[in-house]
Amino acid sequence: MDKLIIRGGNRLSGTIPISGAKNSALTLIPCALLTEEPVTLRNLPRLADIDGFQHLMNQFGVTTVIQGTRPEDFGRVMSMEATRITSTVAPYDLVRKMRASILVLGPMLARMGEATVSLPGGCAIGDRPIDLHLQALAAFGAVIELAAGYVKAIAPDGGLPGGEFDFPVVSVGATENAVMAAVLANGTCRLFNAAREPEIVDLCNLLVAMGAEIEGIGTSDLTIHGVKRLHGATYRVMADRIEAGSYACAAAITGGDVFLEGANAGEMQATIHALRAIGVTVEETKKGLRVAAEGPLRPANLTTAPYPGLATDMQAQLMALVCKAQGTSVLKETIFENRYMHVPELRRMGADIETEGRTAIVKGVDRLTGAEVMATDLRASMSLIIAALAAEGETVVRRIYHLDRGYERLEEKLQLVGADIERVGDS
User: Fold this and answer.
1) pLDDT value of position 125
2) Is a pLDDT exceeding 60 seen at residue 1?
3) Is there a single domain that holds both residue 291 and residue 414?
4) Among residues 123, 189, 204, 249, which one is catalytic?
5) Of these four, 107, 210, 313, 377, which has the most CB atoms within 10 Å of its CB?
6) Is residue 6 domain-shared with residue 29, that is, in the same domain?
7) Could you tell me which of 75, 209, 92 has the C-alpha nearest to residue 150?
8) Which of 97, 80, 90, 35 minimizes the C-alpha distance to 60?
9) Omega of the bond leading into 308 within 30 degrees of 0 (cis)
10) Domain holding 215: CATH number?
11) Domain match, 289 and 325 both
């Protein structure tokens, strides 16, 4: 198993290319199940989760082709063709490692009239039930069965009749599954209090390019008029706003000056606001973001919330950043109840952090020191990298398979801007 060795203290300077969004790509891939024609995705990041989802699609009989891209390039182009779906079962062995696998439920139900999916896995960041996924599908006319660790959804003869569902709380994944199920319904489906994340806009835009009829894109109320069939399309995956925000924190904690090429400022306003509150300079351009930290970092009060609020996926990285702020910061996590597992590892590096329920109190320290630490989930892993870049001495980060799930060739990108970081085998 690999590990990362980071020798902190280098000021980051230069340009980092931002990859396609992991959270968007994992939603766009299952759209290929909705049509017999080819769906091609460009700017697809090279990630373990993408490879895992590709294997899952192959399990259903979908042919996938990675088009000619050089190994040294970031991103890939993948074409998928579901001419004939040979299985409607997503087995435990493929689903257990990746929560996003549940997103095949909606499109498979819409196309084949039934789907059986193992209850999903993924990062251990708290209880993330799929009850809202199932309630939305049931509201559209599906019959739901749960047995032996699997969920089975069945549409009436002739397909889903349509209906409406009002989410009691905002759910990104449930919104995505419901939208994909609705596009081939016999009638109209309406979603109220739907999630508005840019990744959902990206999903809707691909579906519209395939012939779907969706009203209210980008709002919390969506109306989907079912169509008889969808056709193929070629689509470019949006830039990863979480990756961009993560590298912004890395640049800031080192007092650096980095240009995030391809970052979309319009999709990152809450993160940009948080960075500026901490004292980081952020300049928005048409080609990306310039992030620089020229003075002392300031403490901040930050609270995660559904989009357009501050993304829960940025909480751990911002926590690492304010470990070096001059004063006390307060972070509140409102989305997941168990997303402070990085705190003990940051403490090993000298951070002064106390947690009370979903609130973390971070007192800035003059210095962080290198240590051996262990990654616990994807974004927690990145928080350790950020802290290590500013720490004195050497930090060893173990269990980095989490990072490989969500950051495309992380050490190479950080090396581009001067970080002393290397990947080595953990003997």
Assistant:
1) 32
2) yes
3) yes
4) 123
5) 107
6) no
7) 92
8) 90
9) yes
10) 3.65.10.10
11) yes
